[in-house]
Give the backbone structure.
Amino acid sequence: MTALTGVESPPARPPVRRSRRVAALSVVVAALIVAVALSLMIGANPLSPQVVWATLRGEGSTETTYIVIGLRIPRTVAGLVAGAALGVAGALTQAFTRNPLADPGILGVNAGAALAVALGVALLGLRDISALVWLALAGAFVVTIAVYLIGSSGRGAADPLRLTLAGVALGAVFSGITTGMTLSNPDAFDSMRSWNAGSLLGRGFDVIMPVLPFIAIGLALALLVGPAMNALALGDDVARAQGADVRRIRVAVIVSTTLLAGAATALVGPIAFVGLMIPHVVRWTFGVDQRTIIALSALLAPVLVLLSDVLGRVIIAPAEVPVGIVTAFVGAPVLIVLARRKRASAL
Amino acid sequence: MTLTATPATRRVLVRLGPLAVPLRVRSILVASVVVAVILVLGIVSLGVGTYVVAPDAVVRTLLGAGETMDRVVIVEWRLPRTLAAITLGALLAVAGALFQTVTRNPLASPDILGLSNGAFTGMLIALVLVSSSWQSLTVGALIGGVATAVVIWVLSYRGGIQGFRLIVIGIGVAAMLASFNTWMLLQIELETAMFASAWGTGTLNAVTAGSLGGALLCAAPFVLVATVLGPSLRQLDLGDDVAAASGARPNLVRGIALVVGVALVAAATSVAGPIAFVSLAAPQVARFVARTPHLSLGLSAVFGAVILLASDMVAQHLLPVALPVGVVTVSVGGAYLVLMIVLEIRRRA
């Protein structure tokens, strides 16, 4: 770890701050547990906590077993996994590009996944989510690698601003092609408008398992570069003076972000806003230590995703609102209130 | 008007009565070249289509000579669209330059701040609740865009407008509107959704001389304000303290610049729908090519015009299917940006 980052940890904080951080962590973990419980309980067939608990221990009826084990657990796991991936990818992207506007989408991930899915639907006639997962993943990887190559070609390491511009630019080209393709193909348009909404519905373990390794590697890599991100936040020169290998850190961050955002998008579709908002909320609430931001984003983002999904199940029951549509309506007001109240730190 | 050349800084001082504006030679050259390109492209765009007119005949027709049939096709059918591409492109680009200067962020375009999403929301609501007539869509889009701007403004105002807070709140509002739009598109019939999406991408198909004239008349006073505001905006680049010390009033300048930016975007959107990327890319392309130290409103305008005009020609004539111009602006604008980044890297290496 030290070999990768080459940065000493900052000196231990005073005990008062530490106890505050422990309290904060407990609150976030409690929120996560509540969100998971709600996700297992609430839906077209509301179940009491006792029934859910009994079913989890294998003592439920055939019906509750089907609902909890067959439907709600995969859905909740998909929300947990995708949420954690999006939150951490967002935290990394913002720290890395030093741009508060940055989310994984800004590096072209969503646009690449969307184009690959549109191509699969329009040219190959694919509709099955388990086939589209691989296309989305491949599309996300291709675009991110292209963005990185454009942003880092020439002398020196990839400059964050250049990378951001390359991501925005290439993402725009890809989304333009996607729009053009779907506007002249009603069938593809129809598929894309539901894929674009982002949903946890129908994501069984057959879809979750293939993306899980990518997300696990991405999360591990993110935690590994966390300390180095603190040094990088002070600028490349300071980071270099502290002995950090800026180029290697950048490669690690790009790989991690691509794995996380690409896999999450492949799993649940493009859920915007989670990766953008959660790191801001963590930063304004718990401070600017990148290790804290990365770790707490991984815990807080799933809360937003799961609560949004639960809300989407009940708000116009028996119909459902896809989670990607609800996240913005749940998250944006929080972001706006925080941006107004706190001395919102740029980065 | 007198020109005084100062070779040391490669600037000329353009005097127009009491006003003396120092202009960089490179900027003037770049602007002249782009204007020439716009003229050539404009003449070509008036001539091509199912009824082809040679460039010299186009020029003769525009000058009042030429055949009756040519005049009908060129002046009545094609001229509004070509003029719309040029003027709306310029308006969008100036708006983008204003937003980017005020927020000091190259990504702060009206699109990102949610105005395009708001316009699209207004259009969708008008489409579902009122009618699919062109007028109701336009009014809906205008109300949506302006209402979004007002909401973002009210939410971000705390004894002044701070760039960062404005961007964050803009993103929040934009995300909510985008979600709502996605939801609306899922609820309506496929055919209606495709029509709405084409309009929501931005298209010049529905431009008429009347709608263009009205929009330009509304935009004119704001363009004038933007021109007067130029020097004060440049002072803001030095930082608030320096700007205030040199007599500028940063918050006032920022407020006016944002109002002007919103008005220009609303005017353009009312005619052509939310055309993406011109306002984001044009100022950056202009700065890159002319190598100006700040975002120049005038240069942004000519680059916006040429980008939208060329994009519309591609959308109409060069693609296998005629598509909304917004599809092309997104792709072309993005490709330009990629090219610029690569060129810039080469230049530095």
